[in-house]
Amino acid sequence: MRPMHISPDHPSLLRIVDDLATHGWSQHDLFLPQALSLALAAECLQRAAEGELAPASVGRGAAQEVVERIRGDHIQWIEPGQAEVCDRYLEVMESLRQALNRGLFLGLEDFECHFAMYPPGAFYRQHLDRFRDDDRRMVSAIIYLNEGWRPDDGGQLRMSLASGVVHDVQPCAGCLVVFLSGEVPHEVLPAQRDRLSLTGWFRRRGNEPF
Ligand code: OGA
Ligand code: MN
Questions:
Q1: Contact (CB, 8 A) for 72 and 124
Q2: Residues with Cβ within 8 Å of residue 123, at least 6 apart in sequence
Q3: Residue ID of nearest Cα to ligand 1 atom 8
Q4: Check whether domain 11-55+70-204 has CATH 2.60.120.620, yes or no
Q5: Residues 110-137: tens digit of each pLDDT
Q6: Residue of 197, 201, 203 best suited for mutating to test ligand 1, as the one with most atoms within 8 Å of CB
Q7: How does pLDDT run across 56-83, given as a tens digit for each residue?
Q8: What residues does each domain of the chain span?
């Protein structure tokens, strides 16, 4: 697979920056080329089959625990150099990071991300993507990897927007959703079939002394 060079000035990225500045969130259907989302879905399924995805936990550090009545997904963190297809995804997100920094001056310094698989019936209760003791996560970005998803498969991302509107996103292959991590309460509704995604967070520098 060839490298994905997307300029930080690409109109799709500028639209996301503009949406975030105006509304605090953005949705872009068919953001990833189909070949890339198919390859990422295959990579996620292979990792799941090899037992590399583990039950996700809630909280951070010593307070971290697996709580299935809050979230029931299985995840694996992604690092550069693990798989070519993941590196392509990381390149796209790096362009988005640069676009966000240029347009919004957020000082985003890094990106952390994981594959997630929700087995049938699994959900994630309403939450914000910020830890009580760590406010480095600024922007959440989720890409869905599910071909042929139908509304009655469930599994919607339900966002409670500042305007008071509740907005549901169908987790269809290639769709990207971006929102301000500390400001948009959201939840994942239970699905009838496996639900695959890539979830990531752009983070600013922490205020540790060094
Ligand atoms: C998360 C999350 C939403 C989704 O992992 O924090 O809210 O639609 N995921 O997968
Ligand atoms: Mn979340």
A1: yes
A2: 71, 72, 187, 188, 189, 190
A3: 157
A4: yes
A5: 999 999 999 999 999 999 998 777 889 9
A6: 197
A7: 988 778 778 778 788 999 999 999 999 9
A8: 11-55+70-204
